[in-house]
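Friendly challenge for the regulars: who can give me the structure tokens for this chain first? No prize, just bragging rights.
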Amino acid sequence: MSDAPQVPPGTAPASAAPPAGLPPAPTSIPWLGLLAVLMGTFISTLNGRLSNFGLTDIRGAVHAGFDEGAWITTAQAAAQMLVAPAAVWMGSVFGPRRVLLITALAFGLISLVIPLANDIATLLILQFAGGLASGFFIPLTLSFVLLNTPPKYWAYGIAIYALNLELSLNISASLEGWYVEQLSWRWIFWQNVPLAAVMALCLHYGVRAKPSTPNRPHGDVFGLVSGGLGLALIYAALDQGNRLDWLNSGLVWGLLIAGAVLLAGFLVHEARTAYPLLNFKVAFARPLPMLLLLIAMLRLTILSTAYLIPLYLGAVRSFRALQVGHTLIWIAAPQLIFCPLAALMLRRSDPRLVASIGFIFVSIACLMVAYGLTPTWGSDEFLPSQLLQAVGQSFALSGVLFFAVLHLRPQDALTFGASVQVARLLGGEIGLAFIVTFARIREQVASNLIGLHVQTGSGQVLQRLQSYAVATSKADPASGPARAAGVLGNLVRSMATTQAVIDSFVAVGALTAVALLMAITHKPAPLGPASAQPLFAPRDRSSP
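First reply, four minutes later:
Bragging rights claimed.
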């Protein structure tokens, strides 16, 4: 697209007409349809996060142990990975309306019956089925925005898409805490029923049915199965790796090897088949791989901070989920204001600038926590850094996505949507697995180093134990020594957790700085009307 004609933003060449076989540029916004697909993004992310926060309550309801219950969230997310390639093909064959309508209704029905499961096996099957249904939502969202809204509004659509992901990610702790304390854990799933019903209604009345075409894309069964299954197995290995001690587990080895073999077979097959499921020219053409890596790194940052803050507040300050949510919700709330600002900046400036500003803000926010955190911090102390990070995440995700969109053609929209889904889930899971393992190891190291100064028989230790015993056992003096030892152990654990969280924020800030360098050193995007017209206007090869 480097040889596309440069024209003033907001105008199109008078002779511009869509090439044969390409859809004309839309002239109006299908508001109900846009609301429907954005709701799908919101529902999918929110449901996954709620299941994570409410895992203890869900596990207890079906009488599952820790190891069994660990697969509850894995089953859903792995199913979303499994169905990502199928979403590309089914969306191109049947159109987003029919696919999303069926999957929205299926997801609502599954969410209705999940809380009725009486054992872990049934729950896992239903969770997997729910993941298969919701796995269609995100891959088809971006393609719908690009193919059904005028190019000059794409920046706003992508900014709202980013807002949806961030909003659902950070309000989940508050919702889960409120459901458990005021209603029931079952509402973690039942809330999806009305949301899915509204989504289905908006799809039915707001999206036109795709006319049947005689030349439908060929179904690539091997590609659908091998690609999706390979991604799902690798995701499961990453999700369970920290619990199973990574490569010391035969199950993790088996999942990784099987997933790698299936993916390798998928790539070889796609390169040789006459009707490939994956468009390699899109998936591997510059700059999409680097931009997908940036999306994965940003997802790492988002999930890392969403994990680290609850870890600190829960382990060190003993906050409940609802109290943790009061902190995380401040990441989501300001984005309602900064989402339109990000869109305006995307329309009037280089998307690399918008993304770079976002990465700078996120990196500074991480360093603010890393150099200020103490065991006395509560929700209020996190607010300045999280407000800054909220702005940064909106700008960074919107900028990277829009920069990628400027390099696409309309027929590549579905492939791009599936690629973003894979980068979002797999990249986020790699990042979360890294930060969970990193925090655990740093906590063990800190606990060992602090423990070296807590020695039996030390005068300072004995004095501290005596003061704890007096303070905690006035009613029962005989239990004083045991209580004092417990208090000292908790104090050491809190200090170790605090140090681990500090180290983790430093690591996340450093990775964000690397992402910033990748963004600012990339070549500019192609120019065109509304910075996006090359998707619909023919390229003028005769122009200089």
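Confidence is low (pLDDT under 50) at residues 1-22, 528-544. Residues 283 and 419 are 7 Å apart (CA to CA). Your move, everyone else.
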